[in-house]
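In the previous chapter we treated chains in isolation. Here, by contrast, the input contains two separate entities that must be folded as one system, with a combined length of 765 residues.
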Amino acid sequence: MTPREPLRLHVPEPTGRPGRHTDFSYLRLSAAGEVKRPPLDVAPADTAALAYSLVRVLDDEGRALGPWAPQVDAALLQRGLRAMMKTRIFDARMLIAQRQKKMSFYMQCLGEEAIATAHALALQSGDMCFPTYRQQGLLLARDDVSLVEMICQLLSNEHDPIKGRQLPVMYSMKRAGFFTISGNLATQFIQAVGWGMASAIKGDTKIASGWIGDGATAEADFHTALTFAHVYRAPVILNVVNNQWAISTFQAIAGGEATTFAARGVGCGIASLRVDGNDFLAVYAASQWAAERARSNLGPTLIEWVTYRAGPHSTSDDPSKYRPADDWQHFPLGDPIARLKAHLIAIGAWSEQQHVDAQKELEAQVSAAQKEAERYGTLADGHTFSAATMFEDVYKDMPEHLRRQRQELGV
Amino acid sequence: MLTETKPKLMQAASEAKRTPMTMIQALRSAMDVMLERDPNVVVFGQDVGYFGGVFRCTEGLQAKYGQSRVFDTPISEGGIVGAAVGMGAYGLRPVAEIQFADYFYPASDQIVSEAARLRYRSAGDFTAPITIRMPCGGGIYGGQTHSQSPEALFTHVCGLRTVMPSNPYDAKGLLIASIENDDPVIFLEPKRLYNGPFDGHHDKPVVPWSKHPLGEVPDGYYTLPLESAAVFRPGRDLTVITYGTMVFVSEAAALDTGIDAEIIDLRSLWPLDLATIVDSVKKTGRCVVVHEATRTSGFGAELESLVQEHCFYHLEAPIERVAGWDTPYPHAQEWAYFPGPSRVAAAFKRAMEA
């Protein structure tokens, strides 16, 4: 008998590290237009093939191909392009403001702009998103959200709608369908399911949309959310943004090696899609499909959005320490803004000049909003909510012990 | 002695028709009343739907209100509380059951980081008006996973209300108040008291609630205020600060020793009715803190500290503390672990002799 080899522990490694290019063949790409579009009432088990392939609409020439190409007019796509541009401009300016110490912290969504913006445009008023910290596009895609208000939150100033209680980017905006962001990961995923269950209990028409990153799918709340969503056939969209990196942790460490995050959904009895997250048309079409299923009592849909976190995790992170500095340039799904722009130009609904004009106009808009917000103070200049307010909202009515502690602080 | 406090306790529903109820029936009645009154109230947890709960607290409610208002959940405490937080954000008033308090740990993140802080972190944009019921305490041969009293883990969390009734009358009034409250409430039910006022004399026959005045419960709607303690037994010699099962154990110790103990039943552990404690200790000058939970960093430590801060110059003896030992709750050695009447009586004597 040949002796057995000693047991060895497998610890997944990305192919790319600083100084060594990534082999992106692990992504399992499909060609644009190749993946089938099942009927809305598809049996979850019959989405298995979709969970292991990749829904794509836009090809490299900017053509919209296949059954997932949404029937939308150019105006909506122009709106989407502007929303993505606005998001990128907003992020860039806020990064600078953070470096100027006007705010303590910032998180950009560079490279992922299509996902939240297209998704927001596919939802209806009254629906509720339970986002992570990288879905600012859900707010920036809306016409009814004030940039000034968002920036006041980032600056933790006297007009911060959440009174300086949370880190920058942890927005809360109920009227815009945006649930208060937690810093603890994955908690919102099951809450989204609970919200959807409540809508169903009340016989409402609204749906929930929960968000999570590839890294946090390892948390128990992710699996709990899938179980509850399946059990109660909750009207919810379960979005997994697979941007390949959770701080320095490659998605294989979260359990993405030799499988997909979409496949988790199929195993739980949930219709699941794996979608090119840098393809605005694919994101819009898949979001619409999932929303329509949820609104028709057909239950939850899990969507893995394949994308790439082009920037650092946050302003406290330096990705050049753990991945190739030029990784994004080689990411095969490209830049979502460039891709939609190419498509709009190809169909004659956009031009280089319009793009330049839109860029200028949006930069001016963000800049004006920032100037106004800074008039209400920044964390640096101390124009924040008073210390006395920190004792408020712990309970609906302030209990005696908090009154005492406020007095002890002398405020 | 109880008859002295009964009129005060019963004021809230003095005119209502009363029925003898166990604590289980009183809790069920509270949920029944609230399901009837408020279409946003929903009740769920493991085994609570068709079967009506392992302790039968929700028996018959699904048949009466339908599956979308009263339903079973997967065995996932994190899921039960997480879903409740989402439902609360939508506008419902969920009443979730954790089958045993010993099982709440997987829901810790949803309780501590989410429910308790939703209002604060969103400056009131979102709230979690949820009630989480959980049977607690030992004395039922439940061993280390069916006997715990984890109240101190909740009182330590800012933003939570922690409530523990000691009798059917309080249980119903406090549960209705908790469901109506806009803050998240941890509602701990001492399961040894479900069927009668157990006083720690485990070798004696159990007295049913039907033979106790606090088992007389109004049929309809009434509430008792949160943040309000009850002077369960007035007395002159010393003040006992306690809650849950230990209210009756302390009463037994008073009867056994003849020491005229004033027993304060906190009912709401946090936020707390400090004034009732301070008034009593200033009057008696002696204080014994009693709880079933483990001693070190238990809620008793906070109570002792508060008494020291507010009553130091009125104290005539060191504050005594009786609690569960700092061990897991044992199975075969249950009655050596349980802080019964003799241990409480010994503490009374030390407090009187000091």
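The mean pLDDT of chain B is 95. The two ends of chain B are 26 Å apart (CA to CA). Compare these points with the single-chain example from earlier in the chapter.
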